[in-house]
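Progress report, Aim 2. The chain analyzed during this reporting quarter is listed below.
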Amino acid sequence: MKASVRISRGVESLFGTRDENIRLLESGLSVHTQLVDNSLEIEGEANNVSRAESILEDYNALVREGHIFNNGDLNSYLRVVTLDPEVSLRALVASGRQRNFGKKALAPKSVNQRRYLEAIERNDLVFGIGPAGTGKTYLAVAMAVSALMNKQVARIILTRPAVEAGERLGFLPGTLQEKVDPYLRPLYDALYDMLDSERVEKLLERNVIEVAPIAFMRGRTLNDSFIILDEAQNSTAEQMKMVITRQGFNSKMVVNGDVTQIDLPTGRRSGLMDAVDVLKGVEGISFVQFDDRDVVRHTLVQRIVKAYERWNDTIGAGRQLSLKLAEPGENGNGEGRAAPAAPAPEAAPQA
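Predicted structure tokens for the chain:
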């Protein structure tokens, strides 16, 4: 089947850098396109051509209405609409307009990001699990800021384990807060992106926004709060249970992690993996699984994540590197430690 859609404005934005948007549309829908004069000719199976035609008509309408697609936005939208036939380009862009996060208005850039935001709106406890760069932390902070600005909660609690990524930094100078701040920097970065710096400082000073390591959560009941546990793969099973039982009345909690980046000592089971096995099927809890298609950083990051997944599958990486929501997990790490060498005998005293 063939069809033709007239593109009167926004041809450059539609094609994207090195035609990446059109190539994504072609590969996602298995169609072939060709620009003839000001019209884009589409060829392929009838259903796929109709779908591409509908997407392009939505694009035309949005451009005529004055919508400007910023760098990378259209590529992210096309990833969603080519994968999910239930979503239209217009509806996806409109959903972004309706979500105001402080000084930002964001739209979900993948199918799973959309499910993630909807899960946070519907459930009081949400687990976001997937590789780096999928927007887990950023979108969770955005939803927390939105809830605070709309007076749905009275404060935001941001926490994560103070675990180093494979290196030992030793003694850190300063106050207790200054010692833990480097571990919590990604959460600060997201906050400053959503709100003016002066406002963030005031909210932090008044403890309306609290950023703290997991150790500070023991014994607390967090009412009227939006709680985010980031880098949850580095929490132990005991820490995970302790944190998720802090939730009080009128509170939401989002737990994020990437089970391929566990920095716990060898033999320690990740609290995130433990929680998935224990809590699946519990009413009111939602699990959203991200994958390499949801990566919204540099396109190279998406390929890197995919390459590591293939490598782990090839070499049969341990249970800590794969998450199967349908199966109970095991601990088996299989790595042993060499026995310490026996101390050398002392030399006999000389006469």
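The longest strand covers residues 155-160. Residues 165-169, 317-342, 347-351 have pLDDT under 50 and may be disordered. These observations will guide the mutagenesis work planned for the next reporting period.
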